[in-house]
Write a structure and sequence with these properties.
single chain; about 300 residues; 6-stranded antiparallel beta sheet; two-stranded antiparallel sheet; 8 strands
């Protein structure tokens, strides 16, 4: 994994853990007030505290081990100014900690609030590192400048996790049925999800997990397969990572469209016939973002 992608992934992990702890804190507050959501008793914050505490060790290692530095005073000054407002938002979490300790007087909520502050600090640190890496990667800046409508590289936003979840379509691209993707596994996932939701009275969290990670993604793939809902993204290859699983190699590819602030991350088993920073056009599902073709070649999962 290249350094930039490593810190983007680390930032994504920190944001995910922060989101979990904020939700856990809300659940704890509702529980203290004996509030029930749709008749379901909400769990307390302890379910997230243990997991987050362990994850902080990994997050610390990923953030600080081999962290790149720069001696360019202009870039350091620019970073300080750019992240001044975002850094000041940490005061909100300080008030959150004080409220948990003095007003709610609840230990789980207090620990969750402290973890939220620490995680927010990790988000800021990794964001600064990403910004420095992008400002000092002259090859990437050259490709961004030549593949976007803006001429000022200072205006470019970092490609983020949220870019991958934007819904867009330039036009409907025709994909033959044999090249579309809807497998037996997807059908089984939909069947399992519907059966589990109707036959078992699971907790709110377990039901949301089934809906978000099984039912919705597989249903989207089914709709795209039947109705031919495929569109395209044209951008720059900003990452190629190679992994080995059970003796077989697979690749994780990142393609970023800096003009429209879009990005797709996909996995494939066939060797990509393009290199880092090459222009790439992907054909993918409108909703699932599942890539079926890259530069006209069919993708093997």
């Amino acid at each position: 994994m290249n350094t930039l992608r490593r810190y983007q992934s680390t930032k994504g992990l920190a944001i995910g853990l922060l989101f979990v702890n904020i939700i856990a804190g809300l659940c704890q507050i509702f529980k203290l007030n004996e509030y029930y959501f749709c008749g379901v008793k909400l769990p307390d914050a302890s379910f997230a505290i243990g997991f987050t505490s362990f994850s902080l060790i990994i997050l610390t290692l990923l953030t600080f081990l081999g962290r790149p530095k720069t001696s360019d005073k202009e870039i350091l000054s620019e970073v300080s100014q750019k992240f001044l407002l975002k850094s000041s938002f940490s005061i909100i979490f300080v008030f959150y900690i004080i409220a948990a300790l003095i007003y709610f007087k609840d230990l789980n909520l207090f620990i969750s609030a402290i973890l939220s502050l620490i995680l927010y600090i990790f988000v800021i640190i990794n964001s600064k590192t990403i910004y420095i890496l992008r400002k000092t990667d002259h090859q990437l800046l050259w490709h961004i400048r030549n593949n976007s409508n803006s001429e000022d590289t200072n205006d470019f936003h970092q490609s983020t996790f949220l870019w991958r979840y934007k819904i867009w379509y330039n036009k409907i691209d025709y994909v033959p049925m044999k090249d579309r993707c809807f497998t037996l596994f997807n059908i089984l996932c939909i069947g399992f999800s519907v059966y589990a939701l109707y036959e078992y009275e699971g907790s709110l969290i377990s039901n949301l997990f089934i809906i978000m990670f099984f039912l919705i993604p597989c249903s989207f793939k089914g709709l795209e397969y039947i109705l031919g809902l495929y569109t395209s993204l044209s951008g720059v290859c900003t990452g190629i990572e190679r992994f080995t699983d059970k003796g077989s190699d697979y690749y994780v590819i990142y393609v970023t469209d800096y003009t429209h602030k879009r990005e797709i991350k996909y996995r494939c088993s066939n060797i990509p016939y393009f290199s880092l920073y090459d222009k790439v056009t992907l054909i993918h599902g409108i909703f699932s973002k599942h890539v079926v073709k890259a530069n006209g070649l069919k993708i093997r999962d």
